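Regression check, flavin mononucleotide case 258:
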Amino acid sequence: MLFFFSSTGNSSAIARRLSTVLGEKLFSMAEALKNSDADIPVSLAGEERLIFVFPIHAWGPALSISQFLNRWRPAGYNGQPAYAVCTCGDDCGRTDLLFGRMLREQGIPLRACFSVQMPNTYILLPGFDTDANEVVRKKLAASHPRVEEIASAILHSDFSKPLYVAGSFARLKTSLVYPLFARWWSHRVKFHATAACVGCNLCASVCPSRAIHLINKRPVWTASKCVQCLACIHRCPKRAIEYGNATAGKGRYVLNEE
Ligand SMILES: Cc1cc2nc3c(=O)[nH]c(=O)nc-3n(C[C@H](O)[C@H](O)[C@H](O)COP(=O)(O)O)c2cc1C
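Current build output:
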């Protein structure tokens, strides 16, 4: 089973490509989270591989991943190891160690963690913006052979080639910045809809945390539920969502790869 979460399409594109090569079924963690607040039953068959594909947020797994792991109830787990494939704009910190710990707490060993550099989606702080078109093109082109290498490593259980980019100050970023993001920064919700909003409800329907509802045809964010995945701001078809003054004039990005 190939569990994936994606706000803006990068991780779902990687998950789809991997599922084609490895023949694993896709399971959308975002859809499961959106559907209800209850436990999420998952039935696993025999020896099928467990592969998790998700974006890096603040040098750790997107917060929706721990929400999913808190609520999933896997049946039929047979002791098989898991794999993680992180997509990132630059680097992942020590998400490999952190995610390994999260799975170990559930009795599941993480055999290998990989990363794929994809176009950046973080735009909320000064100095952060979407990538230039040429950078997007280069990253997407390089992601194809990378996915093939990852699939081959999994298929042949050959993990000799390093296919994970931790980056500089990796431990510090994951142990310091990620907890601050999880506890504090992700709930500082300054999203608002501009006059361009047409009340189409798409932002609410793509939110994995059910943090958005419409009042008088305008989206309102529930700060305690928001995990700052940025699906709403990037996917708005009218570009009508901003985050305080931080995102005016910045790019928006969605990958629609079928
Ligand atoms: C809230 C947030 C935090 C991010 N933090 C990082 C980061 O720490 N390191 C990095 O390289 N990319 C970071 N990114 C970029 C994403 O990891 C990257 O663009 C990813 O491929 C997006 O995947 P998706 O389209 O499946 O959501 C961040 C993006 C968001 C929205």
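Comparison notes: DSSP finds eight helices and twelve strands in the chain. The radius of gyration is 18 Å. No diff flagged against the previous build.
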